[in-house]
Amino acid sequence: MTRDTLQGVFLALTAFLWWGLTPLYFKQVEAAGPMEVLSHRVIWSLVLLTLLLLARKRWSEIKETFSSPKIWGWLLLSAVLVAVNWLVFIWSISNGHLVEASLGYYINPLVNVVLGVVILGERLKLLQGIAVGLAAVAVGYLTYIGGEFPWISLILAMSFGFYGLIRKRLPVGAQVGLFAETAMVTPIALGYLIWIGAQNEMTYIAGGAEISLMLMLAGVVTTVPLVCFAAAARRLNYSTIGMIQYVGPTVNLLLATLLFGEAFTEVHAISFGLIWFAVFLFSAQSFVDMKRAKKQVAL
Length: 299
What we know:
13 helices; EamA_dom; membrane; transport
């Protein structure tokens, strides 16, 4: 393993561990309510990304991105998707549904496979097909036997799946893309804060210095793992990142059950067991594909 690869693994682990631990932050600011927290996340992320991109002298990339109506239009759609994803995730934490949220991020790579087949016309491989089938059985079991439709899991998986599909096809970097997305959503976020402020319902400032400072840190919480992930993606192949990504939902699940005291029933255990086996098959297929690609390069 080269030094560059080791750095990539470290950066990827940092990103996914950070994402896995973000519920600890959102628990600290839950008094503000999901919509206010989302608004601060959008605004302070934009502030931090602006400073970061200015420091790196990448303003020309931003101008180029906004000068293309086609790219601008797709980024507007991706902005809506990421805002929905963030809002549902924040809501799930403050309402005791982090277990379901973690399930959504386990399912997400399998949703990506389905989107690739249906929209991009990619060929579904055997182990991938079995994995997708097992995920469908898990969702059906949780709905029918558990008596609860996993809407949180599916919204998170689908919104992030479509978001990834759009961003994959756009010639826009991760940081510039998120800058554009947060810039588009910021007017709505500011409008919401002004509205609740006029009704004396805003936690920011009125809630005290501690929670106000915590809300301002939302930009750091969002941007740091993104920078680490972007750096890791330049050093690692997609299959390696794909296997490391399960660190995030695993940490989410551990926090939900061991720290936040959320229920993990027998129905959850069976559903997650099916998903974990599906993840194993999916990872095995990725590993086989990676080995095959290396052999072809060697030849």
